[in-house]
Amino acid sequence: DGGITQSPKYLFRKEGQNVTLSCEQNLNHDAMYWYRQDPGQGLRLIYYSQIVNDFQKGDIAEGYSVSREKKESFPLTVTSAQKNPTAFYLCASSIQLSNQPQHFGDGTRLSIL
Amino acid sequence: EDKVVQSPLSLVVHEGDTVTLNCSYEVTNFRSLLWYKQEKKAPTFLFMLTSSGIEKKSGRLSSILDKKELFSILNITATQTGDSAIYLCAVGSEYYGGSQGNLIFGKGTKLSVKP
Fold it and tell me: Is B2 on the interface with A (CB under 8 A)?
């Protein structure tokens, strides 16, 4: 079945450590997105990528980095510069340049040790 | 600044009740409005609305868009405990972040349906 797979489901970070969240899709979508969700908040856009080897900052990119070396994969690194990383992280994808909805993975919950 | 505002932020009803969730928006170059249902994990897509006055319906759920007054409603009739979730409204803008695919999300409405 086509879909978006995020891993791990739960992740713990020590202070000063970088951690990487995985996102893989087999929907053949061009565009991929990373969101952060905090309690009582909507989804806030961290980074997005419209095509392989290209990505753009969203509203809250500071302390995060991404890469898009393959169409299927869009990993997110939470760096030590992100001082408040505890949140639920959602990856999404969509068909680019068309009026189609984004589809989401099941998310990764990141906590600080 | 573009924004999407949902109301109420939380709502508790009993099974069998009908609920109406609201979403208003101020977005430059509106393209579409989407509703998602989020239980514990991934938001799942419900509806996408692009034209005013045309109701979209799926079972007990329905939604309509008013582009003149800049809002949408999501109705759920004969609610069931399985309808308990966070309902997210998102708006697509032509120029948000320079991408046609980007969405601006509201904070969501948390619906709890009691037996």
Answer: no
